[in-house]
Amino acid sequence: MKKAKKHSPCKVVRKKRPGIQERIDSLTHEELATIIKHIVWLLYFDEENSIYDPDIEWDEETIDHVAEVLVEHALLPKKKNTG
């Protein structure tokens, strides 16, 4: 009896991803890099000491600023219809 061939993950055809994933896929490398740099700066840059601090604590305002970056770049997921 022949064993069924397993599909290589490299050859899997992905279905079109609607919504947020589609938007992310449409961004250029430069756009993604800019967004990530901005978010890393918001999360880790200690302005008082002018250094990046991996142990810096985040507050609600920090998270709000990160959310604003996502809004600016249309990177919010769509709300699901309930009902």
Which keywords apply here?
3 helices; mainly alpha; 83 residues; 2 strands; 43% helix; two-stranded antiparallel ribbon
Would you kindly provide a written description of the structure presented here, covering whatever features stand out?
The chain has 83 residues and is mostly helical. The protein has a domain at 19-72. Helices cover 43% and strands 5% of the residues. The chain is built from 3 helices and 2 strands, in the order ααββα. The protein has helices at 20-26, 29-44, 60-72; strands at 45-46, 51-52. A two-stranded antiparallel ribbon has the order 1-2. It is flat. 0% of the residues are buried.
Give the biggest beta sheet. 2 strands, antiparallel
Low-confidence stretches: 1-8
In DSSP terms (H or I, runs of 4 or more residues), the helix count works out at 3
What structural class do helix, strand and pairing data support?
mainly alpha
Radius of gyration using CA atoms only? 20 Å
What integer is the average pLDDT? Answer: 83
Helix content estimate: 40-55%
In spatial order, strands of the major sheet run 1-2
> What is the total tally of β strands?
2
Query: How much strand?
Result: under 5%
Gap between N and C termini: 49 Å
Shape: flat
Order of helices and strands: HHEEH
Provide a concise account of the structure shown.
With 83 residues, the protein is mainly alpha-helical. Strand 1 (45-46) and strand 2 (51-52) form a beta hairpin.
